């Protein structure tokens, strides 16, 4: 007999992916250049030339067994050392190789982090709006994801609701900053207050409450934004990172878990990750991509286009009367829809070949997400369609 819980998931597929597939099909009809597809967060800037050159050099110079053979269970030691050194250099925490576990992107990192610190039946809190895949990431471990309502004024943390939901059953809190879908960045004040509450409640309940910090957008920050390194403010932090956005490598699925060296049993957690891999079939990311990102560890793609696109859309949306918080990073903007039903709003936009994602699956009804990781030229060409949509449907 097939497992029912996975069969049930077939009727609850990703809205984002479904809209992306619609955009692709529509593009075959009218030309994809005429579809203003703001659905999928797929980086639009090319990988740095240095990364490409590194890959070529590795293929030409390295022993093929080193490039294509199995890596150690905990990842290639030299790669872990370089990641740790970069984090120490940038953020001042004394990371070492024993605190780093390479993974298949941030999703793989979260999968390991959650299993390290929760048992079936435990609760994990996250904050709306949140990435919808957190649901299966957490719930399929046997833990239960609980969502704290959004602070829709500025998309920082709604601490009053958080305090009510932070019960003894909560073993971990999962945050995402810079945030998908809002583009908000948690301020130093927000992170300090969160850390203070977690320390207080850990002491009250007699067990550690871990902070799992999902940070694939860490390098996409806009000018003047206060963007603290989360682990610097809370000892029991497991940082989940991906090179997908910083180096424009989403297809390579390469990232890591970094355990704060001050964390309870820090070195043991990485060892546990290796054992968790035995049950999940993870068994380390590609050896060649581990080596390549280690060689380009402090580089990024040219991420400046995302801020350019953000400014164009923020100005246009506010001029058209939308209420929206100005993003501090990422390549997403999260305006309030012009009617209560965001799904109906986004369905109307389809008539104008605008592919917008309704916010219901992000745990924050009444808004919509635009992923502006597309060419600036296409952003500008989408503005007349956006104006026509608003004028004809809402004026």
Annotated CATH architecture of the largest domain: 3-Layer(aba) Sandwich
Q: Any low-confidence stretches, pLDDT <50, length ≥5?
A: none
Number of strands: 12
Radius of gyration over alpha carbons?
A: 21 Å
- The CATH superfamily of the largest domain turns out to be Type I PLP-dependent aspartate aminotransferase-like (Major domain)
pLDDT average, as an integer? 96
Tally of individual domains? 2
Distance between the termini: 54 Å
Helical coverage, percent range? 40-55%
Describe this structure in words.
- The protein is an alpha/beta fold and 395 residues long.
- The chain has 2 domains: 4-47 and 302-394, Aspartate Aminotransferase, domain 1 (Alpha-Beta Complex), CATH 3.90.1150; 69-295, Aspartate Aminotransferase, domain 2.
- Helix content is 42%, strand content 12%.
- The protein has helices at 4-9, 15-30, 49-61, 64-68, 77-91, 105-117, 134-139, 159-165, 188-205, 266-280, 287-295, 304-319, 342-349, 376-394; strands at residues 36-37, 100-103, 123-127, 144-148, 170-176, 210-214, 237-242, 255-259, 332-333, 354-355, 357-358, 368-371.
- The strands form 3 sheets. A 7-stranded mixed sheet has the order 2-8-7-6-5-3-4, sandwiched between helices.
- It is globular.
- It starts with a helix and ends with a helix.
- The model has no long low-confidence stretch (mean pLDDT 96).
């Amino acid at each position: 007999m097939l497992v029912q819980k996975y069969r049930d998931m077939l009727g609850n597929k990703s809205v984002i992916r479904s809209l992306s597939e619609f955009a692709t099909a529509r593009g075959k009809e009218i030309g994809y250049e005429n579809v203003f597809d703001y659905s999928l967060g797929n980086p639009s800037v090319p990988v740095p030339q240095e990364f490409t050159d590194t890959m070529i050099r590795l293929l030409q110079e390295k022993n093929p067994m080193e490039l294509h053979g199995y890596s150690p269970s905990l990842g290639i030691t030299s790669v872990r050392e370089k990641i740790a050194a970069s984090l120490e250099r940038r953020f001042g925490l004394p990371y070492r190789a024993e605190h780093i576990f390479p993974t298949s992107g941030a999703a793989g990192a979260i999968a390991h982090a959650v299993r390290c610190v929760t048992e079936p039946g435990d609760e994990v809190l996250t904050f709306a709006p949140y990435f919808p895949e957190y649901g299966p990431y957490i719930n399929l471990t046997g833990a239960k994801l609980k969502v704290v309502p959004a602070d829709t004024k500025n998309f920082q943390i709604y601490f009053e609701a958080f305090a009510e939901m932070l019960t003894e059953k909560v073993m971990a809190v999962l945050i995402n900053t810079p945030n998908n879908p809002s583009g908000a960045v948690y301020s130093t004040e927000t992170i300090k207050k969160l850390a203070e509450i977690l320390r207080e409640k850990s002491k009250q309940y007699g067990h550690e409450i871990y902070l799992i910090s999902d940070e694939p957008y860490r390098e996409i920050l806009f000018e003047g934004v206060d963007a603290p390194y989360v682990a610097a403010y809370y000892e029991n932090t497991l940082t989940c990172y991906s090179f997908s956005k910083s180096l424009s490598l989403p297809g390579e699925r390469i990232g890591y878990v970094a355990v704060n060296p001050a964390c309870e049993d820090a070195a043991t957690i990485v060892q546990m990750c290796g054992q968790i891999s035995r049950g999940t079939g993870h068994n380390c990311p590609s050896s060649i991509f581990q080596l390549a990102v280690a060689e380009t560890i402090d580089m990024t793609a040219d991420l400046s286009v995302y801020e350019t696109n953000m400014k164009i859309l923020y100005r246009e949306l506010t001029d058209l009367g939308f209420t929206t918080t100005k993003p501090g990073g990422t390549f997403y903007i999260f305006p309030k829809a012009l009617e209560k039903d965001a799904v109906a709003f986004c369905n109307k936009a389809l008539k104008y070949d605008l592919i917008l994602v309704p916010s219901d699956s992000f745990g924050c009804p009444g808004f919509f997400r635009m992923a502006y990781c597309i060419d600036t030229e296409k952003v500008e060409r989408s503005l007349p369609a956006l104006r026509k949509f608003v004028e004809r449907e809402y004026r």
